[in-house]
Design brief:
Blueprint: H1 41-54, H2 60-71, H3 82-86, H4 91-105, H5 110-114, E1 116-119, E2 122-125, H6 135-155, E3 162-166, H7 172-180, E4 185-190, H8 193-205, E5 212-216, E6 233-238, H9 253-256, H10 272-284, E7 285-294, H11 299-308, E8 315-322, E9 328-335
Parallel strand pairs: 3-4, 3-6, 4-5, 6-7
Antiparallel strand pairs: 1-2, 7-9, 8-9
Helix pairs in contact: 1-2, 2-4, 6-7
Keywords: Methyltransferase, S-adenosyl-L-methionine, Transferase
InterPro entries: DNA_methylase_N6_adenine_CS (IPR002052), HemK-like (IPR004556), N5-glutamine_MTase (IPR050320), PrmC_N (IPR040758), RF_methyltr_PrmC (IPR019874), SAM-dependent_MTases_sf (IPR029063), Small_mtfrase_dom (IPR007848)
Pfam family, one: PrmC_N
């Protein structure tokens, strides 16, 4: 069976890296003898590309390039000045590269190895097992921004929506929206304590903590929503767990071994959390408020059928958008009743 989205997600795609030899990635570093005869960045990239290929590590060259560039303080290998690619590396730099490369051989995602990753132009800290934001989720953010801009233009005032994100993970969606909608406010909830802690840290790193309320909350737990700090919201945004349970065993080792399965497993048809969000919509949304979801390509039809069976929710699936691979990936659902 073909798997979509998170399963086929290219682990190293996206806007690139920033940083140097710092962060959690070196917290357990132990010295290794430098590789004999290898002294330049280009030589190291070529060497580890061959090693990764031999060991069956996906995207071998991209992995080695990101690791070497990170140790040299660059975002990408291509951004290194030509002189830096050929000059001799220090013994410490060689040791760091070997340490990080050994983690990649254990199929640890590069995002966790480097300890940070870019999303919508923001550099976010990444810590296992908190879910790593995928490139297609940037398209979800862009769609929400388009919708906010259209609504603002229609009413003739700047966009200042109150947004609820369900399942904030690293905070990628919430913080991207806050950074591009200066008058917005966000409530970010997640059932994982590690995710709540990481979202809070990323918000502080980006100086966005004053406009975000981060709450440890399980969307499937009845009664917990009575404690939300603000009233009905304009928008609900979520990249919920949507993997069909039977597909979980087919996840790549990078995902299966390192990321929290709770952030992936959506139940038998991948709809468990999705239906909870939709069922809560009358209590969460203002009239004419919207829900934006990232889903499995099999879900638009399933969600449409489910909504038709729940007319009392007054929710309508108004648009489906495809991701950059041409798969139906995003849903816009609008509340239109009491």
């Amino acid at each position: 069976m073909e798997l979509w989205g998170r399963m086929l997600w290219p682990l190293l795609s996206g806007p690139g890296r920033r940083g140097g030899i710092r962060g959690w990635a070196f917290s357990s570093w132990q010295p290794h003898p430098p590789l004999a005869g290898l002294s330049s960045a280009t030589e190291l990239v070529n060497h580890w590309t061959r090693v990764f290929e031999k060991k069956g590590v996906p995207e071998a060259r991209e992995s080695s390039e990101y690791i070497v560039a990170h140790v040299l303080g660059a975002k990408t290998f291509q951004s290194l000045r030509p002189a830096l690619r050929t000059q001799h590396l220090t013994s410490q730099q060689l040791q760091y590269i070997q340490e990080l490369s050994s983690r990649r051989l254990q199929r640890m995602p590069v995002q966790y190895i480097l300890g940070e990753w870019d999303f919508q132009g923001l550099s976010l800290k990444m810590v296992p097992p908190v879910f790593i934001p995928r490139p297609e989720t940037e398209e979800l953010v862009e769609w929400v921004l388009e919708e906010v801009a259209q609504r603002s233009h229609a009413v003739g005032s700047p966009g200042s929506p109150l947004i609820l994100e369900v399942g904030c993970g690293s905070g990628a969606i919430s913080l991207s929206l806050l950074s591009q909608l200066p008058q917005s406010r966000v409530i970010a909830v997640d059932k994982g304590e590690a995710a709540i802690s990481l979202t809070r840290e990323n918000a502080q790193r980006l100086w966005l903590q004053d406009r975000i309320w981060i709450i440890h909350l399980d969307v499937t737990s009845e009664g917990s929503w009575t404690h939300l700090p603000w009233g009905p919201v304009d928008l609900v945004v979520s990249n919920p767990p949507y993997v069909f349970h039977q597909d979980m065993e087919q996840l790549a080792p990078e995902i299966h071994s390192y990321e929290d399965p709770v952030a992936l497993d959506g139940g038998e048809e991948g709809m468990d959390v999705i239906t909870h969000i939709l069922a809560l919509a009358p209590r969460l949304l203002k009239d004419c408020g919207s829900i934006f979801l990232e889903v499995d390509p099999r879900h638009p039809e399933l969600v449409s059928s489910w909504l038709q069976s729940q007319p009392e929710l007054y929710l309508n699936l108004v648009a489906v958008r495809k991701d950059f691979c041409g798969r139906p990936r995003f849903l816009h659902i609008r509340r239109s009743g009491p």
